[in-house]
Amino acid sequence: MEGYNITERSSTVQADTEGCDLPAGMVGWLEQLPDEVAEIINTLAEHGHGAWLVGGCVRDAWLGISGDDVDLCTSCPPETTLSIFGKRAIPTGVAFGTVSIKGASAVYEVTTLRTESLYTDGRRPSQVEWGLSLKEDLKRRDFTMNSMAVDLNLRVLYDPHQGVKDLEQRTIRAVGRPNERCREDALRILRAYRFWGVDNPTTWDIDNELHHALVLLRSSLDNIAVERKWSELKKIFTGSQPGVVLQQMQNDGVLHHVIKGLRTVPDHQFQWLDQPPATGWALHQQLALLMSHQDHDDLAPVLKGLTVPKTTLQSTALFSTRLRAVPLPNRADMRIYAHCLGEDTTAHVQACKLAVKEGKLPPSMTEAIEVFLNGWSKLTPSIEAVAPLVDGRWLMQRTGLGSGVRLGRLLAWLYRLQIEREISTPTELEAVLNTLPFVHGDPQSWPTVAFPSSAGTIFMTNPSMA
User: Are 7 and 155 spatial neighbours (Cβ–Cβ below 8 Å)?
Assistant: First the structure.
């Protein structure tokens, strides 16, 4: 922060709670913050308002976790913040005191100190009052580790609820009474599990009183907007061990209030999520693995109930279907398999290896997968998508067929043969065309480029890879 002398100003409005010197490990974090953070704080100070770094950025700084989000709390009312910063200010959530300030390198959320006291729906405060008390503002937050603030200029840490002590002891603890915090906003139930899994849940604990509240009030998650639950669930999947967290949520009876319609997940599927290489998979691949035991017809409704983006829904449902099948171990069918799966091919092969390694499949399935994996290891065709060599006009000119189902299915059949046989020129493809009985027969029975399909695929008789 070379542009500012961060010791030259202190907040005009002083914190009304005792502070302590900033731990040495956090000083470096302050010094690495963009200059515009100090500029926002000092601009508010020049207008007679206090401002402090608060919440997650303070917690992560203590833990040594790098992050881009920097949140501020201030004694300045939101309407005044909008006026002070003009075009740089965005009224993100003025009703709840939040204004976003555009900087050169990031956007910063600045939230007015609050003393809300009335929650009627278990989701958001129905009554919000602006305040001048940092102490009161920190008292209304969810967990002790999130109820810390830092005065950037004075380099003072405010920790009235012993968040540092709980961080040292790796404990997730509510501020005040856990039942009250969870009744105020039931999403805090899900956030508790999420924070537990950010680092290594095997080395963290959820405070007993808080854990009791999570279980007791789990049904209140039904009142939370699905979009908010999906946002937290995504973050759980990015944690160090999502399987451990999700398994605990299932054991506590919480998971089915988050993922409606999800059948009870076998323990080993949670364990698979935390094993390499699944730990590096994309979100839709992890979701498909978690739900690979789900009846196929139930999968789409479960995903729609989560309001996942359409692309995520489609890719998850498709990968889940493909987890239930392997190609026949010959070059032609494995080329179709690799072409159809594309970037999902590697994860699919890894899932097959994991299933064999864990020994959770019936012998017949295990044998089929082992035969496929053996053939794949010897072949490994390119997973690059192959563009068709010809189009409908080219096919019309050589067959005399008009547009319609027969032409379309014949084009798909040729495309499949192009991939299977690694044909590289239209001339070669035309020679193959001349051998096909396309004049007669039901075009619906002709093969297409698909995996799984009725041809070239071994389907698992069990509805799950697991």
Answer: yes
Looking at residue 21, the DSSP 8-state letter turns out to be: E
Token pair 């206090």: residue: 50
333: its two tokens:
């069918």
Q: What are the Cα distances from residue 161, in Å, to 15, 59, 167, 176, 303?
A: 15, 13, 12, 8, 39
452: in domain: no
Contact 422, 454 (CB under 8 A): no
- DSSP 8-state class, residue 22: P
As beta bridge partners, residue 205 has 171
Instruction: Describe the crossing of helices 226-237 and 242-251 by its angle, rounded to 10 degrees.
Output: 130
Total residues found in the chain within this entry:
466
% the chain with pLDDT above 70:
92
- Scanning 47-157, the segments in alpha helix (DSSP H) are 56-63, 78-85, 134-139
User: What is the rounded distance in angstroms from the CA atom of residue 8 to the CA atom of residue 5?
Assistant: 6
Chain centroid offset of residue 15 CA: 36
Do 209 and 315 fall into the same domain? yes
Instruction: Copy the structure tokens of residue 358.
Output: 């864990």
One domain for residues 313 and 194: yes
Give the predicted TM-score (pTM) of the model: 0.86
- In the three-class reduction of DSSP (H, G, I as helix; E, B as strand; rest coil), residue 288 is classed as helix
Looking at the fold, whether 163 and 175 belong to one and the same domain comes out as no
Instruction: Judge if 205 and 141 occupy the same domain.
Output: no
Pull the structure tokens for residue 91: 């009224």
Q: How many CB atoms lie within 10 A of CB 56?
A: 16
SS3 for 346?
helix
Tokens of 44: 């508010």
- What are 110-157's pLDDT values in tens digits? 999 998 655 555 556 666 889 999 999 999 999 999 999 999 999 999
**Measuring CA to CA, which residue among 384, 382, 380, 383 is closest to residue 329?**
380
3-state secondary structure at position 349: helix
